């Protein structure tokens, strides 16, 4: 991409002296280069916003204008020459303003990413003292600048268990897809993988407020809320948690390295096992996907787990590296 050419064409467009052919050229340049797609909006913002005085840079407006103004004041030139000079001035002002805007604009957020790879799990401490356990194939993003003092806000894709530290009234906010969760100090689990059709929040202790669109519900200990992302609910209905024989809710059994499934179809179970082991399933028969299973996977390998499942429902499988093929 010719950056100079884009800025020249933007200058001509903003000065009102761009031809139809040049406009088509500009649109093509911006469309074909993703990194340049925001240039038009940036240029318009710069063009419409007066250059600010900055402490320590007194007279910057005058210096910029002093460089450009002689070109605008050239008397009795040929109309074509005046248009060229006006366009050049527009590009010069735009370029000078762009340089100033880049230099004096606020610093970009210092984004921090924490992740757990497919088939793995991670335990991390956040700057405010909160502890987060990340399930397989999960990512957290947050702005490191002022975290724990000015804000405590993160974005979650995947599944994580949070043990939130209290922090002087600064709320902890989690963005999980279209669902927002607000807490002050508590322990809870959030499951919000990118391809899931729902977001599930499970509260162990404390209190959290879960919001989806224009609805908000407060969860209390041992309650779970599942939000179907394809629907607009009239009300959000929490459910009481069911616990297994060890007293642990199935929703957070992964913290004890257990994969619990209850009357799941083989397709649903395959999604869970894909994340659990970091493998990919391929069904070669549609009917096999509808088989249902209940049980617990603990330390078994993929082959051992599939052999265990096959004791209750008939199917065949083969494993090739990290690819698993299922048929009847």
UniProtKB/TrEMBL annotation:
<keyword id="KW-0812">Transmembrane</keyword>
<dbReference type="Pfam" id="PF16344">
    <property type="entry name" value="FecR_C"/>
</dbReference>
<keyword id="KW-0472">Membrane</keyword>
<dbReference type="InterPro" id="IPR006860">
    <property type="entry name" value="FecR"/>
</dbReference>
<feature type="domain" description="Protein FecR C-terminal">
    <location>
        <begin position="258"/>
        <end position="326"/>
    </location>
</feature>
<dbReference type="InterPro" id="IPR012373">
    <property type="entry name" value="Ferrdict_sens_TM"/>
</dbReference>
<feature type="domain" description="FecR protein">
    <location>
        <begin position="113"/>
        <end position="208"/>
    </location>
</feature>
<feature type="transmembrane region" description="Helical">
    <location>
        <begin position="84"/>
        <end position="104"/>
    </location>
</feature>
<protein>
    <submittedName>
        <fullName>FecR family protein</fullName>
    </submittedName>
</protein>
<dbReference type="Pfam" id="PF04773">
    <property type="entry name" value="FecR"/>
</dbReference>
<dbReference type="InterPro" id="IPR032508">
    <property type="entry name" value="FecR_C"/>
</dbReference>
<keyword id="KW-1133">Transmembrane helix</keyword>
